[in-house]
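Please check this one:

***
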Amino acid sequence: MKKSVLSKLVACLALVMLLTASVEAQNSSSIPPTLSGKAREYYAGAVQGDVFSMVALAVCYQNGDCAPQSCDMARDWYQKAAEMGNVIAQYNLAVIYDEGDCVPRNLEVATYWYQRAAAQGDALAQCSLANCYYEGDYFKQDYTKAFNWWEKAAMQGNAAAQRCLGICYDEGKGVKKNQKKAAEWYLKAAEQGDSDAQYNLGALYLDGKGVKKNKKKAAEWLGKAAAQGDEDAIELLKKIKK
């Protein structure tokens, strides 16, 4: 009796191993032959519903890394992951529709996904959404909403948002004009290497607006911007040195 039970157990284990091997072989054969390296692993995970594998596979297709470059395939996998709530996929999908390089530009779809990602706290999406409100792309131009979204991104350390927040304070758009605060936000962005912020901060020091007039500091920040190829900074430095 014991031998009979043992034999049945061995037979069951053998069947499980056979079925497992069969499934693995089937999954392996279903992977597109155009994929190689990590992309094959990502595909196997993606078709099983793993959202991180979907995003990784989309990146492979987008960059042509271990997969033939295909914006359509990248978009499709980003779409699947975005619908599952992945914030990276939501932002990247928005960019694809915003730029319109490989699909017809569609700002309605782009802003929808920017909003989804921004609501989850993604600084890049918040910054992009602010740009849409500031420029009046798809949305009615609204400087206040632009300021609010830039502020959220700026508080997370996004240099572009910090510079744009500085512009809002500098020009009084979406917020009461305050060049002292403009200088503070320009400084945060400038210290991160943002050339536009470096130029704007240098200009404030040169004119003594929001900060004490300081030609030396003006030249310092303009020099940093000029070193990055900023034409306006180069020209303004020439005038200072005359």
